[in-house]
Amino acid sequence: MLSTASIRLVEADAGHLPVLLPLVQAFYDHFAYPFDGGRKRELLQQFLADRNAGRLWLIEIDAIPRGYLLLAFSFSLELDGRIAFVDELYIAPEGRQRGAGAEALRQLEAACQDLELRALRLETEASNERAHALYLRSGYRDPDRQLLTKPLG
After folding, report:
1. Are 124 and 131 in contact (CB under 8 A)?
2. Which of 77, 88, 134, 152 could form a disulfide with 70 if both were Cys (CB 3.0 to 4.6 A apart)?
3. Nearest Cα to Cα of residue 21 among 121, 123, 90
């Protein structure tokens, strides 16, 4: 188990792209998602330039970037205001199974309170039992709803 002091979220900006893109590619490779590096660079630049879209943090373990967390803002009338969706959370294999995910989520939740967000949502692959267990241990609950997606265009 890592010391919580050795794990920290560092808010990313465009200057972090050379470190961030290999981590994003590793996440996509891990799940066999298609990855177009040029397109992802464009999207990340767009996201990082728009403070109303959300926030992106590098997850540092012992001062080395080992992962990232992308938080996208949204609004929910039902949940009384601005909420956020953890769109991507990735920790490289060498940082897993050591408490880094739980600590990153704890720090994320503190940052979200500072941002006056009302709730956090996230999803995981149905087959990713370790991530699902982490989220349950961290206080996330299944609201007995189904996330449906319709690609546009």
Report:
1. yes
2. 88
3. 90
Pairwise CA distance, residues 104 & 97, whole Å: 13
| Distance from C-alpha of 21 to C-alpha of 101, rounded to nearest angstrom | 20
Q: Structural domain boundaries of the chain?
A: 4-137
Instruction: Give the C-alpha separation, 74 to 112, whole Å.
Output: 13
Please answer whether residues 90 and 68 qualify as being in contact, where contact means their C-beta atoms are separated by less than 8 angstroms.
yes
Tokens, residue 32? 């066999």
The model's pLDDT over 11-69, given as tens digits with 9 standing for 90+, comes to 999 999 999 999 999 999 999 999 999 999 999 999 999 999 999 999 999 999 999 99
* Backbone dihedral region for residue 62 (phi beyond 0: left; psi -120 to 50: alpha; all else: beta): left
CB-CB contact of 73 with 52 (8 Å): yes
Specify the higher pLDDT residue, 33 or 147.
Answer: 33
Give the model confidence (pLDDT) of 98-109 as tens digits. 899 999 999 999
Q: What pLDDT score was predicted for residue 142?
A: 86
**Residue labelled with tokens 């290999």:** 22
